[in-house]
């Protein structure tokens, strides 16, 4: 997800060019670490507390996955709209706060659609294959 979102957002900020794309590739390793830490330390705990408030006993797996995705993208896009600007510009400034109402909805939309249309289907496919492989190993051991 980070490989697509960062270049798109930087392209929208600075214009789409080879130089902007190459600059975004230089930032991605730092953003990847920030995203992983943000998921574990910020989004995970917040979403973990919010999910029970919105999910009912009769809600299905797909509804839970969709809500989890929307909540995670919301929390991360709020946080990363600020931190990402600082990393991208290589300075801490008030710029992300001054432009927050402009940049956050755009960043949220980009992240949500990439998550829903690209990242989640790939992750579900990979998990399906992994579980199928584990089931076939278990089946061959039990036979």
TrEMBL record:
It comes from the Bacteria. The chain crosses the membrane at residues 27-48, 69-88, 108-127. Keywords: Membrane, Transmembrane, Transmembrane helix. InterPro entries: DUF2798. This is DUF2798 domain-containing protein.
